[in-house]
Amino acid sequence: MQGGDRRDGAPRVAVIGAGIVGVSTALWLGRFGAEVTLIDRAAPGAGASAGNAGVLAASAVRPSLDRAALRAAPGMLFDRDAPLFLRWSYLPRLLPWLARALRHVGEAEVGRISDALGHLVTDAVAAHEAAARGTAAARYLQRSDYVYGFRDAAAFAEAGPALAVKAAAGFAHVRLSGAAVQEYDPALGPGLGEIAVLGAHGFITDPEGYVAALAAGFEAEGGRVRRAEVRDLACTGGRITGIVLDGEVLPCDHAVIAMGAASARLLKAVGLSLPLETERGYHLQLRGTGGAPRQPVMVAEGQFVATPMAKGVRLAGILELGGLAAGPSPAPFGLLRRLGARAFPGLDFTDAEEWMGHRPALPDSLPLLGQVGATGVWGAVGHHHVGLTGGPKSGRLLAETLMGRRPNLDLAPFRAERFARP
């Protein structure tokens, strides 16, 4: 992106944030002809992208917050085996975000959001394959079933409406009960008496390695990766002109902010007050593969996923609300151990590695994918729990729009203007 290296007519774009969304955006921008520099203070894939469940959750079309979830939330907060946690000292700061989120829990609004999410996630496997094609990242991609596991028939029945939504999105399930559960996958213990098997999903065997390999592919295709701290945005006449780093200003024509839960600071520099919160997610990385399921399994009782990975089995999920500053809480790790051992009795939890990270959350459960006014600053943030799933599709759509192409999807539900009013 230095002036002497610039191709005639190619826009200079800085993508800030090297997680799955930022790397995917940079990759597609480069393929569409932009001169792109990808900037992050850490290595590509080292943040929240490193700690996710690794599932390409193509059927995850319904937002996590609706009226049913709202009714269940108070009881869940006082149930040690429920996957919802709250740091009570953070509640006063959380209340304005919750008030905005409550505007989107009605069925009409949930239907609108589900429709928009469906366009981002239902073809996730194909979107990942397209992004990874020609790079070393392709070896980390696996097509697979996605299994939902339930204690018994009553628990399965409770999930009926959610499974119906998935079926309407093109992901019908096969129901298995009793001994047929273990015949399908011997790793599933007797604590899972019923399962729903959904096809046309997939998973990543090493999320951090996958994102790093995509970034390496981006470099091999002519992009640039820089390890640097972004201090500010340089603007003239209300439009981006450069990225302020330590000791220099990097010129650019456009900037894409894809810093996950930390994105709000830079977007505020161009007048967007983004109501961004963090869903604090947890995982346990087990050392071995003994007792591992063959494919990702979502355990409904604790709303966590067990995924077989190259470095061992990962149990990931949980929702904790508590902001960016506080360290991990012990209770979510305890839940993963208790319910994980119940669902998968063959797993070895000895020396399990604990991790906590931040999933960026906007109150309407939809990401920001678009330009802030006519500033040349674009947001690519707010995917909640589907960042890995929807990252490549989101990156391609944003890149197409920035480069003046016409994407095959109306991005109006994701526009920045929806945050213009409090």
Automatic annotation (TrEMBL):
Residues annotated as transmembrane: 12-30
Pfam families, sorted: DAO
Gene3D superfamilies: D-Amino Acid Oxidase, subunit A, domain 2, FAD/NAD(P)-binding domain
Domain of life: Bacteria
GO molecular function: oxidoreductase activity
GO cellular component: cytoplasm
Keyword presence, Oxidoreductase: yes
Keywords: Membrane, Oxidoreductase, Transmembrane, Transmembrane helix
Residue intervals of the FAD dependent oxidoreductase domain: 12-400
InterPro entries named among the record's database cross-references: FAD-dep_OxRdtase, FAD/NAD-bd_sf
SUPFAM superfamilies xref list: FAD-linked reductases, C-terminal domain, FAD/NAD(P)-binding domain
PANTHER family documented for this protein: GLYCINE OXIDASE, SARCOSINE DEHYDROGENASE-RELATED
Designated name of the protein: D-amino-acid dehydrogenase
